[in-house]
Amino acid sequence: MEKLTVEHVSKIYNTPNGSLLAVKDVSFTVEEGEFVVIVGNSGCGKTSLLNMIGGLEEKTEGSIRVSGQEVTGPGPDRGMVFQGYSLFPWLTVQKNVEFGLKMRGIDAKTRAETARKYVSLVGLEGFADTLPDALSGGMKQRAAIARTLANAPEILLMDEPFGALDAQTRIVMQELLARVSRETGSTVLFITHDIDEAILLGTRILVMSRRPGTVQKILPVSLPGKRDHTALTSPEFLALKREIMDLLWTEQVL
Amino acid sequence: MKTAAKPFNLTRSLPAISFLVIATAWCVITYGGLVGPLFVPSPTAVLEKIFSGLKDGSLLTHCWASTRRVMIGWFFSALAALPGGMLMARSKKFTALLQPLIEFVRYLPVVALVPLTILYLGIGETQKYMVIWLGTFFQLVLMVCDTVSSVDRNYLNAARTLGADRWQLYKEVIFPASLPGLLDDFRLTIGWAWTYLVVAEMVASSEGLGYIILKSQRFLATDTIFMGLILIGLIGLLTDFLLRMLTRLLVPWYKRLGDT
Questions:
Q1: CATH of domain A1-77+156-254
Q2: Is the confidence metric ipTM above 0.85 for this complex?
Q3: Class of the CATH domain delimited by B57-250
Q4: B67: which of A32, A176, B33, B141 lies 20 to 30 Å off by Cα?
Q5: Is A76's CB within 8 Å of B163's CB?
Q6: Scanning every residue of chain B, which has its alpha carbon at the shortest distance from the alpha carbon of A150?
């Protein structure tokens, strides 16, 4: 079943120096349970695309549908995890994770139980009553992921959520996300400029071109064995990495 | 565990030091006879005034009258500025409607508005509240707008994608996120409210610290003027302290630059 349908979507920004075509005629779909990664260089319009799907930005042209419903604004059916830390600093981890449920009018008891479940799913059991300020960067993003998942969105939209983390933490978080999304059967659309991350996480990879951003190629990922750090050096992984590098970097020279 | 002797904490002692320097200078120039008591009364003279005022209870009456006026006038200004500033921060249309007007009134000297307040409101307490209100509202509404505008967009986007509607966005995100800034705005404008006190008590008052300062002017009672000023300053310090405590209580999550 198609969870997300993006058809001929374009985005034009009006700047003081005239109009700027940031996203050009992008079409793709994400099936239920799929983990689709959009990879592209910085400034290719991938964040604009994700924000349009999230309903935070208006599209200039085209159609975006989630489970058949046209997107007109932000909504809890599309949970987002941002690169910047967006946890509410005045709420504890537990209350942050409860936030979406509270907004949707779910009673306090169910809220607390659901949140506890997701807090432990991301490995933050001991930190439920901690304020975000006292957490490390990786822990903050764990909490942000738990907060989004607890709201049971149709699709999870992630905008370089590990971009600000150090290399070690990033690998741990990637493995965590792969496990969590598998266990919860989530549908995920994930954007990154990190090719390793894209291959490690994605069941399909969309390679975007430079500005104006458009879909250059869609690549299925089939890696034998486990998707963890050991996959990083397998021949299949390296072949795919090479193909994506060629797509992203050859174009950069031109 | 044995505790070592407390090390000398310079940062904590500095406020005391600055007051001590002023007090010493005051003693030197008055007791040393460098300046006549008409210009600067001696600490003893001022203290005597304070004690006699405390004894007959008039001092507390004056302090309370002024505090009440400042608090009521300021309270209504905060009451109006809070929703006004929040709406301005979130709506371009509302800003376009109100901002030029507010900026215009903001520059009008409150003293010049006093005759009008008497004409419209008479010479009762309402007129005094109005003077304080006029002095603080137009500043505070712009400060609130500014504070609310600077709420991190990430919080708003996160809340919207988690399903918050417009009202929830205000209640659950914008208000708590701007609360530390709002408490600072409140603290600053309460200070300004005190500076408008003398203006408020200029006409038809029979009590209040501003009133006794103005009355002393006629009799060149410099010691009473000093007493009034010192008391206003002390009440100001106390208010400031209480609001800082309140800030710590209400927003313990908030870390200021330089906090440890």
A1: 3.40.50.300
A2: yes
A3: mainly alpha
A4: B141
A5: yes
A6: B162
